[in-house]
Amino acid sequence: MDTSTDSPDAGPAGRAPASAPLLDLADPRTGRLRGTLEPARAERVTAAVTAARGALPAWRGLTPRERERRLDALADLVEEYQEAYAERERAGTGKPLAEALGEVRQVADLFRFYAGAARAGSAPAAGRYVPGHESWVRWEPVGVIAAVVPWNYPLLMAAWRCAPALAAGNTVVVKPAETTPDSVALLAEHARQALGEGVLADLPGDRTTGRLLVAAAVDMIAFTGSAAAGAEVAALAGGRRTSLELGGNSPVLILPDAPAHTWADLAAACTYNAGQSCAAPARVITLAENHDQVVAELTAALAARQAGRDFGPLNNPDQAARYDRIVAASGAKYSVAAPGRTDGLWRPARLLAELPDDDPAVLAEVFGPLLTVQRAAGLQEALALADGVPQALAASVWTSDLAAGLDLAARLNAGEAWLNCHLVQSAELPHGGRGASGSGTDLSALALHEYQRPKTVTARLGRPL
Predict the structure, then answer these.
(1) pTM above 0.90?
(2) pLDDT digits over 362-405, tens only?
(3) Is the CA virtual torsion 67, 73, 77, 79 positive or negative?
(4) Average pLDDT for residues 78-97, to the nearest whole number?
C-alpha cells in the first residue's frame, strides 16, 4: 500500500529516542480525537522480542494437537467478543458495521483453519531413497516472527500473518499501523489468555517502532505495505527470511458479452473498504466495441454506491491528500463522481475514462474508491495493458464465454485471477503477488511453509542387502 503510515521510519536503526511524544488517534468518520498512543521505542521493542524468544521453546514443543486446541480457544474468544472487535475496527478505520463484523468472523475462521492445518503437515514421504538408509523430512518453525501490518484491514491482516506463523510453531510480535492499533491490542490480550505469555504480543507505534522491530533480533519479517517500504524492510532484513505483500493495481478485463451482474459486482468491490484493498479492482480494460457501454454501466452502478451510506471514509489525512492529488493530476477527459459525502476524509466513488495509458491514476495504486477505464484494440492489447504496470497481485475477467474467460485468466500475470467475480477469497485458497507486488504466500495450507524450514533427516540402518 502506497501510504505514509505503513512503512518503517527512514532514520538510522538504533538511534530512536527512549521515549516519543504521544500520537493522536482520530476517528476517520468524524476527524475527532478518540485517544492517544505512546509509540514503542527500543526498550519496549527489545522486551517484546525477548519475551517472544523466551516463549518459543515451549510453544514450538507443543504437539500439533495442543497447538490446535489453544488456537481454537483464541478463535472462541474472537467470536465471543466479536462486537467489541468490530467497534475497535470501526474506531480506527471507519468501516461500516457489516464490513467490520464480517472481517472479525473471517479472523475467527482463519485461526480455526490454521488450528486444523497444524495437524496436517505435508512433506515428502519417508522412504529409503539411498540403499541402507531411511530418510524423512521435518518441518520446523523459523523462530520469532516480526509481523508489520497495515491500516486498511488491521485485524484481518494481522490474522493472515499470525495464524499460520503460530500454527507452524513460531512466536510472533505484531506491529499494527499507528492509526489502527485498537483491534490488534485486543487480539494480543486474548492471545495471552488462550496461548500463553509471549506467544503473540502487539507492539503499537509509528514508523520508527516498525523500523526498530524489523532491525531487532527476530528470525523473520512478515510485512504488508508499500513497495518502497518493502525494499527498506528487505534491506534491513540483511539476509533474514522475509514475506512481503506490497500492494496491487488490479486490471479488470470486460469483454462485450460480460454478464448482467458485472456492473453491480464491480461497483461493490471497488467501494468495499472505500477501495482501500490491495486486490481491489482498479484498471478496467475494454475493447473498442464495448467501451462506451462499460463507461455508462459503471457510471450508473457507482452512483448507487454512496460514501457515508454504503462504504466508509479514507483512513487518514495523508491518504486522502494522496488520493486527491492523483485525481487532480489525471488527464482523463471523462471524470464523474458518484453521490455521497465529500467532507473530511469521505470521498465518493469516481470513474475516470478517456485517459492516457501513462496517466497517474493508471500507473499508481490509488487505494480509494476509483476506477479507470482504458480502451484496447483487441485481446492482445488488452492483455498488454493489464500486465503493463509493475504490480501483479490480482486481476479479473468478465465474460459469458467460460472457455475464453479461463484462457484469459491463465494468461494474465497475477497471483490471483477471478472470472466473473472479484475479491472472492477463502482461507483454503492462496493469495500472493508477483513483481512489485512482493513475494510469499498468504492464506491456504501453503502459507504454513512461509513460516517453516524443512530439515531432511537420514538414518543409516546397517549393511545394505
Answers:
(1) yes
(2) 999 999 999 999 999 999 999 999 999 999 999 999 999 999 99
(3) positive
(4) 97
Name which of 172, 200, 199 is nearest 186 in CA terms: 200
Residue partners of 81: CB distance under 8 A and separation at least 6: 186, 190
Helix (H) or strand (E) run with residue 416 in it: strand 416-419
Q: What is the pLDDT of residues 180-236, one digit of tens each?
A: 999 999 999 999 999 999 999 999 999 999 999 999 999 999 999 988 889 999 999
The amino acid sitting at 282 is A
Domain ranges of the chain: 23-246+437-455, 250-419
Element (H, E) at 415: none
Q: What integer pLDDT is reported at residue 169 of this predicted model?
A: 97
Looking only at the bridges linking them, the beta strands covering 133-141 and 452-460 are antiparallel
3-state secondary structure string, 296-338? HHHHHHHHCCCECCCECCCCCHHHHHHHHHHHHHCCCCEEEEC
pLDDT of 2 reads: 36
Q: How far, in Å, CA of 64 to CA of 139, rounded? A: 12
Q: Which residue has the cell 473530511?
A: 344
User: Which one is catalytic: 68, 245, 365, 416?
Assistant: 245
Q: What's the sign of the alpha-carbon dihedral 254, 420, 93, 42?
A: negative
Among 388, 408, 412, CA closest to 399: 408
The yes or no reply on domain 250-419 and CATH 3.40.50.2000 is: no
DSSP structure class, residue 390: S
DSSP single-letter state for residue 344? T
Per-residue model confidence (pLDDT) at position 122: 67
CATH superfamily of 23-246+437-455: Aldehyde Dehydrogenase; Chain A, domain 1 (3.40.605.10)
Q: Is 249 left (phi over 0), alpha (psi -120 to 50) or beta?
A: beta
Report the distance separating Cα 279 and Cα 277, nearest Å: 5
List CB contacts of 102: < 8 A, sequence separation 6 or more.
none
Each residue of 400-438: pLDDT tens digit?
999 999 999 999 999 999 999 999 999 999 999 999 999
Lowest mean pLDDT among 110-124, 324-338, 339-353: 110-124
Nearest to 435 by CA among 376, 382, 371, 392: 392
For residue 320, how many C-alpha atoms fall within 13 Å in the half-sphere facing its CB? Answer: 17
Whether 197 is catalytic is: no
d(CA 180, CA 285): 34
Q: Are 143 and 169 in contact (CB under 8 A)?
A: no
